[in-house]
Amino acid sequence: MVKTAKITVVGSGYVGMSLAVLLAQYNDVTVLDIDSSRVEKVNAKQSTVCDPQIDAFLSEKKLSLTATLDKEAAISDANFIVVATPTDYDPNTNRFDTSSVDSVVDDALRINPSALVVIKSTIPVGHTKSLQEKYDTKSVIFSPEFLREGQSLNDNLYPSRIIVGSKLDVAKDFAKLLIQGAIKDDIETLFIRSTEAEAVKLFANTYLAMRVSFFNELDSYALAHDLDSKSIINGVCLDERIGDGYNKSSFGYGGYCLPKDTKQLLANYDQVPQNLIQAIVSSNATRKDFIAEEILKFKPKVVGFYRLVMKEGSDNFRSSAIQGIMKRIKAKGIEIVIYEPSLQEDTFFGSKVLENIDEFKNKSEIIVANRRSEGLEDVRAKCFSRDLFRDN
Fold first, then answer.
1. Rounded Cα gap, residues 85 and 88, in angstroms
2. CA angle 276, 87, 39 (to 5 degrees)
């Protein structure tokens, strides 16, 4: 194993940024990105994502970390090339758009065929195998990540498991680098085929989405029958076979991973009989329909949406469930106002964004909040939320 490896991480989102910081503790890491502002941030020891622990490491730790826009310079002498570019779900093709991943793999194998290319981006089951066959190489592998937004570095420092889609010695060397950067001892590490590793990622996230959907549907039942959801959830989850993880009711599962990963897994089932996977995907839309109808029962003229982010400690509101509620309410011709400090624009999808919290509270007849906040205590009577536990 290389004592001090040269590692290039392509992409500086949650996955790329957290991995780059983790690996830069003991190795020379270069972040390659196409966004000059992100490159400037990394070189100024600033995080590109909202994660307090990344901020702390960048300011307090001695890291060998730089960033560049120069593809040739970043790739040419790397021992490992980690691909952490986005793979959004494309409803037109019914699969992930892997074009960014494929482009990086092509560049890596052309510029530096001796490096191990490790795909961390989520991809369809079988995609790594197709790349291996296309380029006639075993030097492209998949290794899933299991990170939470806002806690991405922490989840790399204390990983639930490390999975690497190869049994090559160089792949085992890569796993050692992840273990070296972690704080947790005795990390369960699996070396399996990339195809199985891809499946682990999609099935794990779909199971989490199923948990969210189950407790959301429990909450829908309780709302419809005037029952105390929290009491029911607490009673159900005292069964150790069920447990109390991922049991918090919300407006639906959202964020960058769960919506797209469940749809991709469903697409992978195109020739396989199933009922449950389809139900998990469908349940999310049903929940949003139900929540919107509950809000409409109040017959409001102006509905305020407090924060679009998914949870505390995150600045990301891509595919957040609350946006689905907002679109449904707006479709009924009701005025929408938004309070979201992370938005710089005056409007969001045609709805007014208010900077002043007091103006927002006064104008809103009903305030919809995915997660409750102490800042809303004075208008608690007109808040609608399914945040029963005050917990992400």
1. 10
2. 145
CATH class of the domain at 6-192: alpha beta
**Per residue in 143-162, pLDDT tens?**
999 998 889 999 999 999 99
Q: What is the pLDDT of residues 162-181, one digit of tens each?
A: 999 999 999 999 999 999 99
> The tokens of 202 are what?
């999609």
AA identity, residue 354 = L
CA torsion through residues 287, 291, 294, 299, sign: negative
Locate 217 and state its tokens.
């549907």
2: pLDDT strictly greater than 90: no
Give me 194's structure tokens: 């990339």
Catalytic residue numbers? 257
What is the fold of 202-384?
Rossmann fold (3.40.50)
List of E strands, the chain: 6-10, 28-32, 65-68, 80-83, 89-90, 95-96, 116-119, 140-142, 162-164, 189-191, 302-306, 335-339, 347-348, 351-353, 366-369, 383-384
Written as one string, the DSSP assignment of 132-194 is HHHHT-S-EEE------TT-HHHHHHS-S-EEES--SHHHHHHHHHHHHH-S-SS--EEE--H
- How confident is the model at residue 311, as a pLDDT? 60
Check: pTM over 0.70? Answer yes or no. Answer: yes
Annotated domain spans of the chain: 6-192, 202-384
Amino acid at residue number 36: S
Is 6-192's fold the same as 202-384's?
yes
